[in-house]
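I'll show a typical protein example:
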Amino acid sequence: MANSYIEYTANGSTTTFAVPFTYTVASEVAAFVNGVSTSFTFTSANTASISPAPANGLVVRFSRTTNLTTRAVDFSNGAILTETDLDASNIQVFQASQEAIDTAQASIFKVADGKFDAQSRVIKNVADPVSAQDAATKNWAETGMTSQLNTATTQATAASNSATAASNSATAAASSASTASTQASTATTKAATATTQAALATTNGAAQVALATTQAGLATTNGAAQVALATTQAGLATTNGQAQVALATTQAGLATTNGEAQVTLATTQAGLATTNGAAQVTLATAQKAIAVTKASEASASASTASTQATNSANSATASANSATASASSASNAAATTALTMGAGSTNPTTAVGGGALVTGALFFNTTAGLMKVWNGSSWADAGSAVNGTSQRVVYTATANQTTFSVIYDAGFVDVYLNGIKLLLATDFTGTSGTNVVLATGATVGDIVDIVSYGAFNVANTYTQAQIDNLIRFEIDGGVSNSTYLATQLVDGGTA
């Protein structure tokens, strides 16, 4: 308990407060509401009133500041030494000593274990860290983590877009390969058709030549038969008489003329057939040459199409591999991002982007002023079970009371009996973490002041270098010990 000040937490209605410490004059006592000097009036020697009532939750403090500008008593040689003068002088020194002790105990000081104790109070007006081992402020940590989180989110989005583009490219390449394969098949079919047509043209040309030759032979045979028939008729005409002879002669002339005409016609037809057959052979030969050329071109086209199909298939495979790598990169970036949750007034229920929380994810709760870690089922304090680094509990003992409840990390507890510090393991036992036990029972009204500590050191906090290392993450699916700064591109760069 302090000797020169007292603090209260206002409830919004209370206006009267006890002032339990001694003071020489009322002017040495001052009142503060949330650190701001406030007017008050003494309603009695140990009671003060503030109007209107301080708002709920504000800290109300009454403190004494002894006048040290002048001495309370100036002793002179030969003067009468009175009790009043001695008391006044001693009171001034005594009260000043009390205030000095209170100021020291209320400040950050190094305790027996070599660590600095802030007594569960907020440290304000702290500059941002510069060196690697400087303490990180809340603003610096929030700003840095938010910036890195935004960068990681942007990179994850870019990686996802890249994966989508790669997938689309793979689909287009597969479609191109399918089209090329179809074209190759069509070209092969056309080449086979052309070869068949060339063979048919050659066969048809030969058939036309054979037909023309047969027709010429038939025409010659028919002409000779006509001549033979005319001779026979002439003989018959001679036998039948002169008239028949004349008639036969006339008919023989006609027959001869007709037979010659038939021979001429047959010869002409034979010539035409021969000419047409030769033309058909020439045309068929030309068509065959064209068909062979087309077949060669079609074969070359088929080979080219096959090569293109192979290249397209290889491109599709490469695109699919790129898509897989991009998806893996996006997954790794998202997984790393999921471990840095930033800061806020309430614990999150989902990861960044709406996914499930990842075991080991860190979040700074601004309301509690504590770093939290997701243990797989709930948010746990990433520190000591003690509230902050230390906490204080004060008891007024009952008759022969030995056991007092308090939370602490085993071995980290100080006990004061009426302001006198007791020795651990000698005067009290403090190993359970839930209570302390006095070796000798206290007397009724004894003040037992217990200060408990958390097993907390600077190594349990995040330095600037450690935070920089935490916000690094794997980008391109590299080996587990590959680390990259958030500013590096998501392009498969080397470590």
